[in-house]
Amino acid sequence: MKKIVALLLSLLLVFSLVGCSTNQEGNTEVTDTANNEQEEAEENNIELAQGVKEDSIKIGTVGVQSGPLAFIGTPYFAGMEAYFNKVNDNGGVNGRKIELIKKDDEFNPAKSLQAVESLIYDEEVFAIVGHLGTPGVMAAVDTVKEAGIPSVYFGSGAVQLTQAGENFFPVQPNYVYEGKLMAKYAVEHFKANNLVVIYRNDDVGRDGLKGVEEGLKELGKSDILKSEGKLAYNSGDTDFTVQVQKAKSLNPDLIIIYGLSTGTAGVLKEIEKVGFDVPMLTTYSNADASFLAIAAPGAPNMIKNLHVMGWLDVTEESLKPLNEAMKKYFPDAPVNAYTMAGWVAAETFVAGLKEAGDNLSWEGYIEAMNHLNFTEGLAPEISYSPGVRQGVTKMAISKVAQDESGNFYFELVSEFNEFK
């Protein structure tokens, strides 16, 4: 039985090991293989970027690793490091081991910007990989763009990242695009004729709502979402009586809940309280066991009506490499959607390294990513081309199900589709 969690793992990439020898003084010398690489790069007029040596590539990442939100960053960075450790143990990428430098921003945008500046200008890393958290990512966008350093994968669905520049490589779907695809599923999968959207009144929720509206317009179905069916709540709200009572009075055949974690859980709790039995659809950001742990106690019955968007097809079998790597390198860390997010961030970066070969200038890596068509992982496809930074565009729907032991999980109920 297929279970979608939210993010992914992938097949291992195995590369050859560059040989080394030790001289009489005890210092490590690079053998002819590495010397030949350097000579070949010089002959081809390839200037290696900062952070790249004959036997290593230094990269950096930023995200919350302490404080109340450390439960997100801890498994996230463990998943990232587990993948890099696995690659390094198999010889690295074209003989180069990956060195990861982590910076803790405590989910503070100002600290996130400082950390990115330090990685670029003090640590002189080759790339920023897996920058975690929309506030911090957006605070550092201009700095990363000005520097021209490759930035691969963001723990964010901000639509601005698709237009930030050629050196930005988002992977997970942005919220506007997801909203458009939600509209497509509303019309084609749920056969909805009367739609209500309950959304968080911030960039996340407004982007999602905008996508739903754009999608319905392109499908010629704008009439199924009326102005009174767009119901906002504020971040930090704990009482959703007004929104749910209004939604119930409109008698919809589908509710889209575009909010994160506790807000969505609060809406579900109120829906349970009033016995509002209606299909619901929410963002992929809630497609994780940690969300079910928060939401299910307050809505044990109505949560079974909840569907989530997902962009990775995760099965127990396909999770095996990630589980094995985590058991080996981080046996005490949880394996959840955040772990998978870190894994895919590392995996995507490495896919670009493979494509680039020894052309490891920033321009060379960006050019390689522009020709990337990566289908070996659990995402339906990760690909880029010049000027196109959409990330993953194929998504599917999962529905909350319950096993014989009473545990809730997400079960795949649709094919992967994209908005065309």
TrEMBL record:
It comes from the Bacteria. GO terms for biological process: amino acid transport. Keywords: Amino-acid transport, Signal, Transport. Residues 1-21 form the signal peptide. Pfam families: Peripla_BP_6. Residues 56-402 form the Leucine-binding protein domain. InterPro entries: Leu-bd, Leu_Ile_Val-bd, Peripla_BP_I. The keyword Signal applies. SUPFAM superfamilies: Periplasmic binding protein-like I. Belongs to the leucine-binding protein family. This is Branched-chain amino acid ABC transporter, amino acid-binding protein. It comes from Caldisalinibacter kiritimatiensis. The lineage of its organism: Bacteria, Bacillati, Bacillota, Tissierellia, Tissierellales.
